[in-house]
Amino acid sequence: MSAADLWTSRERAALLEEVPSGIAVIDRGFRIVDQNRAYAEMFGDGRGQHCYAMAKGLGSPCPACPAAAVFGDGLARVMEQTASDRHGHEVHYLAQLTPVRTPEGNVEFLATVLSDLTATRRLQREYQTLFEKVPCYVAVLNRNYRVVKANEKFREVFGEPMGEHCYRLFKDRAEPCGDCPMEKTFADGRSHSSRHEGVARDGAPTHYAVCTAPLLQSDGSISHVIEMALDLTQTHHLEQELTRAHMLRRVVIESSLDAILVLDPEERIVLMNRAAETLWGVQRDSLVGQPPPEGMLPPTLRPVIAGKQERQLVHEAMITAAQGVQAPVRVAGVSLVAQGKREGTALIVQDLREIKQLEQDVIEAERLAAVGQTVAGLAHGIKNILSGIEGGLYVTSSGLRRGNQDRVRQGWEMLERNIGRISGLARSLLAFARGDRCKPQPIRPAEVVAEAVALYADSAEQHGIELVSEVSGEVAEAWMDPEGLHSCLANLISNAIDACLVSSNPSRRVVVRLFEEGETIVIETRDSGCGMDYEVKQKAFTSFFSTKGTGGTGLGLLLTRKIVQQHGGSIALTSNQGEGTTFRLSFPRRRLPRPTQERNDG
Amino acid sequence: MASGGEARRPIVAIIDDEVDITTYLRLALEDNGYQVVVINEAGRALERVRDTLPDVILLDLLMPEMTGASLYGRIASDPLLGRTPVVILSGLEAREDLPGLLARQGGGRPPRAFIDKPVDIEEVLSIIGSILATGAKGDAA
Questions:
Q1: Which residues make beta-bridge pairs with A149?
Q2: Is there a single domain that holds both residue A583 and residue A482?
Q3: Which residues on chain A are in Cβ contact (under 8 Å) with B91?
Q4: pLDDT computed for residue B82 by the predictor
Q5: Size of interface A-B (CB pairs under 8 A)
Q6: pLDDT tens-place string over residues A347-406
Q7: Distance, CA of A373 to CA of A149 (rounded, Å)
Q8: Which terminus of chain B is less hemmed in, N or C, by CB atoms within 10 Å?
Q9: What does the DSSP 8-state code read for residue A594?
Q10: How buried is residue A474: exposed, middle or buried, by Cβ count under 10 Å (0-12/13-18/19+)?
Q11: Is residue A246 part of a domain?
Q12: Distance from CA of B95 to the nearest CA of A (A)
């Protein structure tokens, strides 16, 4: 038997049976006369049944039945159809209706071949959804730069695109852009990507990254290019903000007049600014990555550098600055923590040398002003003595003229007394000039206050004056001249007692207070004495001005002020006539005299 | 003005705590025919001056308890003494605003004259002489 003989009708029937497309043969009465397995799997066994009942569940032929048309004109037809399968699920298929002719040429049957499109359709729908809903702009473009298809997000941002030029839609241009990835893809058939800035339909600038891909025809030629653009507008803004913040940080840090140093958690230098280079006289390149050399930072900063303290302020400390010079600095240290993780320490170091120099200049200027006032006061004192001498001369000479011995003696006494005043004045001046030296040492201010109060305790008690000292809190050790401070207090307490003595106020009380207020040591003497009026207050610090007649040299307050000024402090008085007087000595710690260089600050 | 026999001798009150100066001025003025009242304490000065009702007051500016400036204010605004001419004795020539300050203290009534220390007795006599010659009414000028 030949191979062709082997290909019997049985084999043909078996082939028909196994073909993966549903095949049914229908007669002119629309009854299914035969069907294969694939058809049975779709619609069940339909042999002897009407096709419209099987596929559509209808009781009569479908309106515009294609089978009827085929039977009518004998021409094959192809169409897409939707029906319900035997499980009631919707199926999509391509139906090919082919007339089966008798030898006489009559069409008694037709074969319907169904290609199942359900899976294809589902995929199509999925792709469509993906195309529409993907969070980027997707457009299909032809060679003429026209958009033939665009997704929802594209339409939302750039407007209705159909038939429009892409360059107009994306960038509101009248002609193609220079660097066009679509052109390149049409040219070389490959994907291209680039970043662009466009204009949304509301006019807002839009930043996006474009990726193109060719859509190929069956012959391999490119029919269209699909363009996918990812919106980077938000990212672009963030990038810009980041760049701006970074630039700002750089400028601020670089142009700061204070030295700025950043250490990592391993205590190595990661950042130094220009002021830091100047302060320490180093190049940052040589130190970045290294731990700070010995003496570069005050040892008291340990807690913040070691991360044991969140922030730390060292008011004044000595460090080794450029050229090995010891320099006073103020340092603020902040522990850097990001998202709970320690990133290191930032240190802001202020060079105090210039400020210290200015303060010294101010103290010197104040001292010179005091010298000026001293000279003015001296002139005033001398005038008073001169008046007395002139008076003495007048009285003596007029006594001599008249032979009045009593008057001569009286004049002579005046002369003697005023010459004596000159000696006293000279002595006071010498004492004032001698006390020029301020010898600071670490003292406890409370002890000096206690000593001065003790010195006048007896005298106050004898005069029925209550003398008390009030020390608030702990006033730490300070570099001061104990003798100088003692002189000041002795002077103020003695003045206060005198003021109480001439006062008519029945309550006679002198209070000496010591306290510290914001790094300033304050000592006050407050009396309930006679007080001063405007004129006396104006003249209180004038040398040789005394309200005690011959009992005062007029130098006490001046000397007190001089000592206070040598300590960088200030003296203030408040007084109301008849109510008493308060002297307040303020000594800011940062202005206290410094023991030269080897001061170990904390 | 020299002593004129039966004529009443003008009274000058000197208010100053410097004893030597008051002694000097007292003797010099008495030598020139004036009656002198010396007041060394500012505290009781107003009372004493009111008792005396002098023709001229010489007032020192710097004294304990009350300074000459506030005492001047009280004298100038006193109903009995308000028209009495006051001459200020002062070593405070550095204060250019002194006349203004005193005028304010005196309720707009300035002192009649200022004499700087150390005092020149001829200047004192000449000023007092001219004040008395113009008469107390002159202070209205």
A1: A140
A2: yes
A3: 380, 383-384
A4: 83
A5: 79
A6: 999 998 888 888 777 777 776 776 776 676 677 678 778 888 989 999 999 999 999 999
A7: 96
A8: C
A9: P
A10: exposed
A11: no
A12: 11
Tell me whether 0.85 is exceeded by the ipTM.
no
Interface residue B23 vs chain A (CB under 8 A): yes
Total-model pTM: 0.42
Task: Identify the pLDDT of residue A409.
Answer: 94
Please give the domain boundaries of chain B with CATH numbers for all domains.
11-131 (3.40.50.2300)
Any domain includes A111: yes
Shortest Cα distance, chain A CAs vs residue B62, angstroms? 7
Question: Contact A547/B117, CB-based, under 8 Å?
Answer: no
CB contact under 8 A, A395 and B27: yes
Minimal CA separation from B68 to chain A, in Å: 8
Q: How far is CA B31 from CA A398, B25, B123, in A?
A: 9, 10, 15
State mean pLDDT over A297-307: 90
Q: Over the stretch A165-189, which tens digit does the pLDDT of each residue have?
A: 988 888 888 888 888 899 999 999 9
In this complex, the residue of A380, A387, A502 whose CB is nearest that of residue B21 is: A387
Chain A residues within an 8 Å CB radius of B21:
384, 387-388, 391
Q: Do A533 and B118 touch (CB under 8 A)?
A: no
**Average pLDDT estimate for A15-34:** 89
Q: Is B37 on the interface with A (CB under 8 A)?
A: no
B66-115: pLDDT as tens digits: 567 778 888 888 888 888 999 988 765 545 667 777 777 777 788 888 88
Tell me the residue range of the domain where A285 lies.
256-351
Where is the domain boundary, A434, A459, A481?
A434
The verdict on A102 and A157 lying in the same domain is: no
H or E stretch covering B47: helix B45-52
Distance from CA of A255 to the nearest CA of B (A): 50
Give me the residue label for tokens 């190595």: A268
CA–CA min distance A405, chain B (Å): 14
Question: b/e for A355-382, b at 16 or more Cβ within 10 A?
Answer: ebeeeeeebeebeeebeeebeebbebbb
Verify that A391 and A512 share a domain, yes or no.
no
Where residue B16 falls (left for φ over 0; alpha for ψ -120 to 50; beta otherwise) is beta
DSSP-derived 3-state class of residue A490: helix
Residue of B nearest to A580 (CA): B65
Same domain, A427 and A475: no
Contacts of B117 in chain A (CB under 8 A): 383-384, 386-387
**Alpha-carbon distance B127 to B141, whole Å?**
16
Contact B64 A398 (CB under 8 A): no
A248: in domain: no
Whether B62 sits inside 8 A of A530 (CB atoms) is no
